[in-house]
Specification:
alpha/beta, Arc Repressor Mutant, subunit A, D-Maltodextrin-Binding Protein, domain 2, 9-stranded mixed sheet, two-stranded antiparallel sheet, 46% helix, globular
Length: 296
């Protein structure tokens, strides 16, 4: 059983399709397809159900997946641990929520690069749920996600504290005006894909407004989200620091929410059992020196 086949299988299982797996693995789709077929032939059974929206695991695939993830993670970790002589260097794969990557990470990563130029850092953005899964299966060394994270296999350190705010078009002058609406007259919820903590908080806020069934419109980028709010397509929930970064000429309004909805910590997670990579410790040291950490 080839390790490269197991790595490819794990990527397809996590991402739900050949195309996205090929993009992540930096290879062509035919290579991914051939490796999956080779693994299925070796095991003697189908590992995926193919359908128009992608691929889902069969029973055999679900049973194989945790073993494949552990083997791939252990192989990668073994190589990195052998190369780790205590000086931050080599590859470091980090994940982040898109909002954090847009506002909080540029200065941090610039500082990290200046201090540790021998580290080849890669950054992947995704919702919190996807990032947690990628850290657990070893695809990422660490990730900035929305806390709290309570998982026996993960450690977490607080990186930033955010205030989430409701963002609307200019015509919505107050929360009272929003609350006065009905599920039919109220605005559409603009959300990132399932697994985003901010989406969950927005849905909670809409439920408190009496709109548990308000229409949802899913967007894939932060710029698209902000632009659609400004165009009065709907409302969304974002960190205040993210919204204030945009110069929108008064096209949006920011509404403060209760502490239970607005307060959220961004935490840096890693696997508890993973080798304590010098590069990752270097990133954590930059966090501690950043003046925006915790107090931001």
């Amino acid at each position: 059983m080839e390790l490269s086949d197991l790595v490819t299988f794990s990527a397809v299982a996590r991402l739900g399709g050949i195309t996205r797996a090929a993009d992540e693995l930096n290879t062509v789709q035919s290579n991914v397809t051939n490796r999956v077929k080779a693994l299925e032939a070796e095991i003697g059974t189908r590992l995926f159900e193919r359908h128009s929206r992608g691929m889902t695991l069969t029973g055999a695939g679900r049973r194989l997946l945790p073993y494949a993830q552990r083997m791939a993670a252990l192989s990668r970790e073994a190589v990195l641990a052998a190369r780790d002589d205590g000086e931050p260097a080599g590859p470091l794969a980090i994940g982040s929520m898109e909002t954090t990557a847009a506002v909080r990470l540029p200065s941090l990563l610039a500082d990290f690069h200046r201090r540790f130029p021998a580290v080849q850092l890669t950054l992947r953005t995704a919702p919190t749920a996807d990032l947690v899964a990628a850290v657990l299966d070893g695809a990422l060394d660490g990730a900035f996600v929305a806390g709290p994270i309570d998982h026996g296999e993960l450690t977490a350190i607080t990186a930033f504290r955010e205030e989430l705010v409701l963002v609307t078009a200019r015509r919505w002058t107050s929360l009272a005006a929003l609350r006065a609406g009905t599920p039919e007259s109220g605005p559409t919820a603009l959300v990132f894909r399932t697994g985003c903590t901010y989406r969950q908080r927005l849905e909670q806020a809409l439920a408190e407004f009496g709109w548990p069934s308000a229409a949802r419109f899913e967007l894939g980028t932060l710029d698209g989200m902000i632009g659609c709010v400004a165009a009065d397509m709907g409302v969304t929930l974002l960190p205040r620091a993210v919204v204030e970064r945009y110069d929108l000429g008064g096209d949006v309004r920011i509404h403060a929410l209760s502490a239970s909805l607005s307060r959220v910590d961004t935490v840096l997670i890693q696997r508890r059992s993973a080798h304590p990579y010098s590069a990752l410790r270097g990133l954590a040291s930059c966090l501690k020196q950043d003046s925006e950490v915790i107090a931001a």
